[in-house]
Amino acid sequence: MKNIVITGASSGIGLATAEYLKKQGLMVYPTARRDEDVKRLKALGFDGAMKLDILLDDDIDRVIEAVLARDGKIDVWFNNAGYGQAGAIEDLKSCYIKEQFDTNFFGLYQATYKIIPIMRRQKSGIIIQHSSVLGLISLIGRGAYNASKYAIEGLSDTLRLELMGSGVYVCVLNTGPVTSNFRDTAMRKLQENVDIENSIFRDKYLENINSDKSSVPFNLEAVEVAKVVYKITQSKRVKPRYYITKATHILGFLKRIVPTSWLDRILYKIS
Q1: What CATH fold (topology level) applies to the domain 3-270?
Q2: pLDDT tens-digit profile of 180-217?
Q3: Which of 14, 127, 187, 233 would be a feasible disulfide site paired with 8, CB 3.0-4.6 Å?
Q4: Catalytic hit among 20, 145, 242, 243
Q5: Is 243 a catalytic residue?
Q6: pTM attached to this predicted model
């Protein structure tokens, strides 16, 4: 039986993926940062659920050791934990940019760094990095998140080269709009960390905060991401990237063929 460790599985894509893969017969180790979320995962039937704060080295080590002690291997590691800090670059203090990178990039990096030697010894394994359509293109007011996801793209591109021939594969998920708590967290972070009333982007911020999230074009349910993750776990030829939602396909295509100045005008209008 193949197994998978999922970070950030308390809700949204992480939880949907855990539930879907469990139904498909995989041994799933969903992890969450808070004790109450781990208890809830266990109540849902995930006896392999564990606490994991991706910012804590000891937590990463403990989860890896526990899975190896039980199964003797780790087949797939899904770096899913992350959040979005909304706000224009000029409105965000550097401490909030650092917090964004700590979770979205450095936590992911540290888990990847620790799992690679194990998978090299196994001569097999898949590392799934959760990027975004915003790892391909940029939008106004998403600069911190954009930068963290672009960093994941660069890291993953390099790792594919360094792991070539090892039996270990790295792939990236470029998700577009998916039903989850992501937007709620981004709007909360915006209100907590940005001086909205004194910003040149005030009206844009208020429009985003008050908008109807159900009106987002091309939105998919989180289980659609889970289906792609399952496909990856069963694949003999793992692709470098997996585009998820029509938004990602459209914007990824435009990024490849449209001159940057033209694309900027398009992105300005849709931001």
Answers
A1: Rossmann fold (3.40.50)
A2: 888 899 999 999 999 999 999 999 999 989 886 656 78
A3: 14
A4: 145
A5: no
A6: 0.96
